[in-house]
Amino acid sequence: MKPRISPSPWSKIFVRTYASHPAKARLNQPTDYSSTPLLHHSAKASLANKELPPSASKGTTSRINLFQAVNAALTHALRSDQRTLLFGEDVAFGGVFRCSMNLATEFGDHRVFNTPLSEQGIVGFAAGAAMEGMRPIAEVQFADYVFPAFDQIVNEVAKARYRAGTNEGMNCGGLVIRMPSGGVGHGGLYHTQSPESLFTHVPGLRIVVPRSPVQAKGLLLAAIACNDPVIFLEPKILYRAAVEHVPAEPYTLPLSTAEILKEGKDVTIVSYGTPLYLCQNALAAAEKDFGCSVELIDLRTVYPWDRQTVIASVNKTGRCIVVHESMVNAGVGAEVAATVQEGCFLRLEAPVQRVAGWSTHAGLAYEKFNIPDVVRIYDSIRSILEY
């Protein structure tokens, strides 16, 4: 007989619980990315996008995930413009999330290359390259590590165009700073942060957060072509989770233009990035339970953001909820709420509500309790309807 081995007393301690959902949960179930209406599950649906140029809408699609869509955009940018450079920590090897996979092989180490472990150096070099007429794409390995480069971004990159006045060529146009952001279930203190609101206070920058592969490809190509420097935050949990049909041809999507993902008449939900999928799950349950109609808006660009679309929607519905993963204090939701209060005051049926991350650091085991979930959004819909 084989000897009987008792289970280790530590076995229960090391069971990973961060990605699980409560037993018998009705609302906080994992998002089914294979059926969510926020993704294009057929070529026909993808090519029907009215924002696509004819060259893309009449072409073909490939079913890819978000990191592959980013890779496709980077590939086209490097092929179409010799001024385009791509660099960052481990970029030549494909990057932590494989977004730059095979690019160094195709374009050589003079255009796709690794940098020292210095975010300040990465962004400082990018600013200098942009001022010399290049189109640099700098990767910060995680958004949590961007803070050493904050001085370069705020005092150099964002001010270059304003400072130049009428002097041509003295700007940082074409500079894109890419960074994975947001929670992934087990990121802890230094791999979970969403710092977009810190940059929305800075004139001269554009801050973009895509929700899907189609959006990532089109918005990234638009960012690279833009004459303003762009902070491009890629929700890391969506890199592999979000899969859809993406047009094979290159295309751009408009910056600073929100998209109405679902029309409604009773409540407007404004969000961006990963929380949009939670919003979709919550509003589907709320519409079934309460008989209401919810409008869902993706900001896409959180600065400068599309005030007109949001104001028009709230003037129609009379109620507004803003959802984001980053901390609630001085977040994007605060700016949206203030603008809605100013532009829709006489139409509001209830105070604007914010469902956001709590103002605390992200714990390793309890990250899921720190950021919005379906239940919190569902409860917000119910409370704003009953106000």
UniProtKB/TrEMBL annotation:
Reactions the enzyme catalyzes: N(6)-[(R)-lipoyl]-L-lysyl-[protein] + 3-methyl-2-oxobutanoate + H(+) = N(6)-[(R)-S(8)-2-methylpropanoyldihydrolipoyl]-L-lysyl-[protein] + CO2
Entry keyword set: Oxidoreductase
InterPro entries tied to this protein: THDP-binding (IPR029061), Transketo_C/PFOR_II (IPR009014), Transketolase-like_Pyr-bd (IPR005475), Transketolase_C (IPR033248)
GO molecular function annotations of the record: branched-chain 2-oxo acid dehydrogenase activity
Residue ranges constituting the Transketolase-like pyrimidine-binding domain according to the UniProt record: 64-241
Cofactor: thiamine diphosphate
Source organism, top-level taxon: Eukaryota
PANTHER family according to UniProt: 2-OXOISOVALERATE DEHYDROGENASE SUBUNIT BETA, MITOCHONDRIAL, 2-OXOISOVALERATE DEHYDROGENASE SUBUNIT BETA-RELATED
Protein name: 3-methyl-2-oxobutanoate dehydrogenase (2-methylpropanoyl-transferring)
Naturally occurring in which organism (per UniProt): Meristemomyces frigidus
